[in-house]
Amino acid sequence: MALVPAADAAQAAASDYVLQPQDVLRVQVFQEEDINRLGEVSVSQEHTIVLPLIKTVSVKGKSVRQVEELVRDLYNKDYLVNPQVSVTVVKYAERSVSVMGAVNSAGRVLFPGERALDLLEAIANAGGFSRIADLKRVKLTRRKPDGETTTQEINADELVKRGGSGAPLLEKGDVIVVPERSF
Nearest CA to 72 among 83, 58, 88? Predict the structure, then answer.
């Protein structure tokens, strides 16, 4: 089994990152200074970016790699012949979750750049479980796009015993509550 160098792994993770509103991108087209002069563009709340010639481009639900392909296709369609396009995230939108209750440092926990964050990582980043935490009744509350909230009870004790395997991935705005044990 070949090991992937850390820089290559980071690059792969960055190109698979799904763009979010408020991400700042650098879109460059090889040997097209008029286009590159734009510099950086922000992803709008409507999940769009605006680029010279092709105007408004929807990036909703797309990874960095998919946006590169989309921009390449749009420029290739009417304006350039086989353009080489590079899209880089210059600044990631702030994404966080709240961790409350029986943890050692309750509060907001930020997602690490382009990476995902799971329940156990978020709790670890909040200082870990306190000595009075009830690991078997951790609650995860999520607000859906329609405004409805869902709450699920998770047995974090089982997740820890499995080495973190199966820990749910978190989404921006999730709330984790670790209750205290009943004595």
Answer: 83
Neighbouring-strand partners of residue 109: 97
Angle subtended at Cα 67 by Cα 147 and Cα 84, rounded to the nearest 5 degrees: 170
Place of tokens 């395997």: 165
pLDDT per position as a tens digit, 59-89? 999 999 999 999 999 999 988 999 999 999 9
Domains present along the chain, CATH in parentheses: 6-91 (3.30.1950.10), 96-178 (3.10.560.10)
Residue 105: what residue type? S
Taking the C-alpha atoms of 163, 167, 173 and 178 in order, what is their torsion angle to the nearest 10 degrees?
A: -70
CA dihedral over 116, 145, 149, 102, signed as positive or negative:
positive
Write the DSSP assignment of 138-170 as a string of letters: EEEEEE-TTS-EEEEEE-HHHHHHTTTTTPPBP
